[in-house]
Records
---
Amino acid sequence: MSDESQDADRKAQPAKAPKKVRRPRRFLRVLATGLILACAFVAAALVWQFYVTAPWTRDGRVRVQVASVAPQVSGQIVELRVTDNQAVRKGDVLYVIDPFDFDVAIASAEAEMDNREADLQVKRTQAARREALTTLSTSVEEKQQFAGTAKIAEAALASAKAQLSQAKINRTRTEVRAPVNGRVTNLLLRVGDYATTGTVNIAVIDTDSFWIDGYFEETKMAHIHVGDPVSAELLGYDPLIRGRVESITLGISIANAAPSTQGLPSVDPVYTWVRLAQRVPVRVRIERVPEGVTLVAGMTATVSVGEAGDHRRKWWTALRQRFSGWAAPAPSP
């Protein structure tokens, strides 16, 4: 072999090494690209599951029943026994209306009842005397008249008794009491104000009636059922409030249902590619409030339905079943 051929062989040998090095690098690049795409797919699936289908919402509100107290009788307030934001029990006196006029009404009704009782006694005696006489001493018509007069006296006595009962109940109503256990709120009354029958002048928050309304997007309603466990986190508090789905609203307002000009339907335009999901109110019954958490009507809450991680497990199971169904061969006819 000549020197020229040996030099050519030595030059040719290093030229083959880069080809062996390029293949592992290309495989690594393809593998890295595949891993990145897989991670992106998993991340997109998780984001879709978390934000679109998972039954949770930040649009939750603490709600409560408020007892609007109005007096059943009118009069000047002579005593105010509560202060603003004071806790009260059912039956506690909130304020007192001047009872003088009602005491007079009771005395007058009692006197009227005594008068009617005496009149009835006289009318019954007269009717009994006429009834004992024969038709030679009195006529049948006269007997009927006296008997009717006694009946009228009985009715008058019954009316007097009813008026006395009304006067007594009105006297008890001068003490306006709390209808529920709760807390007085936004108290603006003062001694000397005039209370008018049927006009609300004090409000009591029913502390036994707190609940949470979660406004869920319609895309998440398939995963919400009555009785499902619920955890709610109030804005500003770390402990979670536990509860259960009590009910789901079956109707919300529809703008397109309102009639417009000439009674025709007023239909709003809808974007073809963008449609906002409607929100459906879900009522949550509170079962446990952590110590140190103060419920205030109107507070914002993040509401999650189901046990922690339960929806994610169901979602992955459904995803695996879907892909396994695609991979399975079609059944033979």
---
Amino acid sequence: MAQRRPGKDAKVKRLSDFAKRKAHGEPLPIYVLHGTDPYLLDKGRHIVRERAIGDAEPGMAILELDGAGAQLADVLDALRTLPFLAPRRLVLIREADAFFSPKNQGGRNREAILKYLEAPCPTGILCLEMAKWIPSTRLAKRVAEVGLVVQCEADKPYQVPPWLKGQARELYGKTLSDPAAHMLQDYLGNDFAALTHALDMLALFVGDAPRIDTPEVDALIARGHHERVWDLCNAVAVRQAPRALELLDAFWTEGMVAPQVIGLLRTTFRQLVRVRAFARGMSLEAAMDRAGVPRAAFNRVRHAAGAFSEANLADAYQALVDADLEAKTTPNDRLAMEALVHRLCNPTAARSTATAHGAGGR
């Protein structure tokens, strides 16, 4: 979501339009992500990476630099170096305002980038994350000629509820009521990472129901269930069954039923499984990017992914799949949920038992 920008400059796109834009032909030599919201910048960064290198290994094709410490020689060398096992090389400068600051020889850097853009390398793509962007500068005019500015600014507060309703409809096929959208904004503000995560949780929470209304927002978000899911995940990761059962009691006391709890846990563990699978061939940070984890959730996901082995994660996810099937016939079976918690906390023992039963049945 991005703010509408006045003017008719076709080389400036809202983030929502940029996400939908079909990538015909080669990517542009330069992109500017203009804004300050971490979630919106992260989404824009992910789209640029996808367009620049596709499914190639990020560690071999992307150079990420901090604007304050970026050296001009490193930037230009990387842009002009032929890619290895990738179609292109992407140079991403975070907080690039500092790269062009007078304190960092910004004038020299700006002139060098302008000169580079006169004849950019066909396999090099430069992405600048800028908090401020003045269209009247020579650099901005050159970017308008050969590149694209993507607006990653937060919308005005009154535009957030309609955006939430659109996201619920497009991503989950759900109708989010107007009061529910305003309640979400009241609880979470304009934190797009938190709002997006909350919609994901709410869609699972209501199951097959076509509508999300204020009672669901109150039950799941106002009472902190989405945070408690991660606490339960962490308790399972360190094999603290008493703590996990205590958290399960809190869900139960507040009226949730087994399919709802299992649904919330499944989406969390599914994300962890994807991260660990991608991490086989790349760094954990690159794997989280590839799995679509918002930057705001990196620390939480990094901690949980590090606490589980890949085999234990697979066991946990299978346990949730099995429990989901059982819960659909007995949704209030508390004993079954407690058994699930014990199985999650003791995956090796559960796997051994399942193997023994399988052998005995043959």
